[in-house]
Design a protein that fits this description.
Chain lengths: ~210, ~210
């Protein structure tokens, strides 16, 4: 069982009461898995962009994440160090059993059991463009999963290579351009050389998805 | 001041008493900054390779790290999330004030104040080849710096790009091959897009070092 400790005491908490960097939302683009959907839980890798301490997201139209956020205006960031979960959540629906529910917005919101830390955000000042939805994020709840904090993360070029390969794989699926396959093959070599078995499994799945 | 908590109670501690993954030494290649030198403290990024739970290093001849380890048979892994420190320790000597001393081998061994976690290793079964020294690593002391654990690390493609650029920069310095500059320019774009100010400063320094 997971063992979540929430640092939250209520929904009236002010914006600044949650120290986002303690929960892995930091300046620049934090590559997290975003969970959404009070009704239909979904998870997908998203970069949460933070500029001057203010987090926001850009969600492309048509994705499950976009559908859920457009309707419900909530999302959760999940800090995850498991490369296979990044690949799986990019290309497949996760199992319902992989979600845990936490209080948010007066209801129960899905986060990932595998998350080391999570923040539920309300999406405000939502703007829609032809291609995307842009929303500012106001944190309403946050917590850690102490069980998953035990292993200290360390920079690993193999893990990083899986992330890059995943980005290039989605672009390859959209465009079919050969140059993305070249990137992916480069990163497969790196994941194989520098990664653990987890990185190798993740790249194997990614190759299967692309049929290469 | 730093606030180190050591989990060690003596030098007779057995190999398995230190849970290396808690201190950031994990399967695959852990990209840490290695500090060495009871007499002449030095720091440089090194990949600690772990296979089947057994960590080892390959140190190229001629480096300060190689000189210190060949003579003293000790090194410390320092888990660091600061991109500028990776670049600085690749190309420059760090200030003496950036080291902290911890007990190891009956003496005081230098680790980095900026380390989130550190492990002092004794180097055993040392083998010398024409180009390198290969040593198995036996942990003798380990600790955390709680102050630096506050900010939770999150995957950031900008940080990862700085690591890759640093690897390619050392290869460029060795060979002068243009292809490495192309990689570096690619990663500069990524660090600029996805990183925080720290990643941008790190890439700026790397560009200055290479004179590009």
């Amino acid at each position: 069982m997971t063992n979540f400790s929430s640092d939250c005491r209520g929904f009236e908490k002010s914006y600044h009461a949650i120290d986002l960097s303690s929960f892995g939302i930091r300046e620049g683009i934090s590559e997290v898995i975003v969970s959404t959907g009070f009704e239909n839980p979904n998870a997908a890798p998203i970069g949460v962009i933070t500029k001057g301490g203010k987090p926001f997201v850009r969600l492309f139209k048509g994705s499950h994440t976009w559908t859920n956020v457009a309707k419900e205006r909530y999302l959760a960031s999940n800090v995850v160090y498991d490369p296979l979960l990044f690949v799986r959540s990019t290309f497949f629906d996760l199992e319902l059993s992989e979600f845990e529910y936490v209080p948010a917005g007066g209801l129960k919101f899905p986060i990932l059991k595998e998350a080391v830390a999570w923040v539920v955000f309300e999406c405000v000042n939502v703007k829609n463009t032809d291609q995307a939805l842009i929303a500012e994020l106001v944190p309403v709840e946050a917590g850690f999963n102490e069980e998953h904090r035990k292993d200290l993360p360390v920079p690993n070029r193999g893990f990083n290579a899986v992330l890059e390969a995943t980005v290039h794989a989605t672009r390859y699926q959209l465009t079919g351009e050969e140059k993305y396959l070249e990137w992916i093959r480069h990163y497969e070599t790196l994941a194989s050389k520098c990664g653990s078995d987890e990185e190798k499994k993740a790249m194997k799945l990614l190759y299967e998805v692309l049929g290469i």
